[in-house]
Amino acid sequence: xxxxxxxxxxxxxxxxxxxxxxxxxxxxxxxxxxxxxxxxxxxxxxxxxxxxxxxxxxxxxxxxxxxxxxxxxxxxxxxxxxxxxxxxxxxxxxxxxxxxxxxxxxxxxxxxxxxxxxxxxxxxxxxxxxxxxxxxxxxxxxxxxxxxxxxxxxxxxxxxxxxxxxxxxxxxxxxxxxxxxxxxxxxxxxxxxxxxxxxxxxxxxxxxxxxxxxxxxxxxxxxxxxxxxxxxxxxxxxxxxxxxxxxxxxxxxxxxxxxxxxxxxxxxxxxxxxxxxxxxxxxxxxxxxxxxxxxxxxxxxxxxxxxxxxxxxxxxxxxxxxxxxxxxxxxxxxxxxxxxxxxxx
Length: 345
What we know:
Layout: E1 24-35, H1 38-45, H2 54-67, E2 83-91, E3 96-107, H3 112-130, E4 138-148, E5 155-156, E6 186-192, H4 194-197, H5 205-213, E7 220-226, H6 230-242, E8 247-251, H7 262-266, E9 272-273, H8 275-286, E10 298-302, E11 305-310, H9 314-324, H10 328-335
Parallel strand pairs: 6-7, 6-8, 8-11
Antiparallel strand pairs: 1-3, 1-4, 2-3, 4-5, 9-10, 10-11
Helix pairs in contact: 2-3, 5-9, 8-9
């Protein structure tokens, strides 16, 4: 019996003693899906259901539930919750509400149960608010998708988060970026890969692109590795641009899979788009395969830094970059203040 943490040597129930654990910042996010029919969903979006604004009430209910979890789960420690929230995504196909509940604290034990209970209660509240018009609502897929802090560290599923969660750990790029204050062009290539960052896959695209970028005769060049995390990519690009790096090329995350977020991560950062660059890359890809229509390559500028987002495939990334290399030197010169004529040569 003593092998069970909630039972003592005699088999009597007990609460786990966490007094010897270190206090750390802890965050958990849980997810649930509430399936509705199309009519109910339209009423929900219009805030026309008999009981009123469904999502606002469900949000409040979820937050309240997170704060009272220890009253519902046996032997669950009462925690001083520092933050709790519930977020929603209304989906037309299939008609449903995807919700995420988050909880945070600084303490000796985690807040996974607080997030899960918050998600369940928020989902149940949606049911309560719509049951007057629909009885066959389905609540499904209640599960933990992120947990940080404590001895076990970070746990995260492949699900993209609905919103940025600043309390969750921000992965550090490998290597850490350095400011560039020297003369000449500093070129950064960022590979986005969960498996590559974890050491489970060899990065082939990044080194191949870096070899091609040697044609620009950069004074400094560095290959960075990041997991598929939009906040980490955004921060690294901003840090590099603000510290003198003139060209940033990323590889990965431009397709349609659930973890392909690169354009969405970079668009809020870019000051100007380069539609001509994007059209050339699209045309180049399409000349090799009709599947290039799925690519969402991106090009733009941030201050005096040019940013290019290429596919993750080594071959596709190389083809896209090759199509731009003839014009890149001139484009970088213009971006950095060259006032010479841009006429044909």
